[in-house]
Amino acid sequence: MNELDNEVHVDVDTNACVGSGTCAMIDPEHFSVVDGKAQVVAERVPATEDLEDAVADCPVQALSVKR
Description:
Blueprint: E1 7-12, H1 22-26, E2 31-34, E3 37-40, E4 44-46, H2 49-57, E5 63-66
């Protein structure tokens, strides 16, 4: 499997995001909070367990993953 096969695109619904920082606490390698909204550090990121946990634990389901 090549490295690109494991990459995903993460969308942040900035209208739904409440800036709780849960994603950044769970997966600081891929998320940060800027001006009260979650941001993904890169357009495509490796699909990791931490990434999946961050998306699943978002309190307002503002994060989604696309392969």
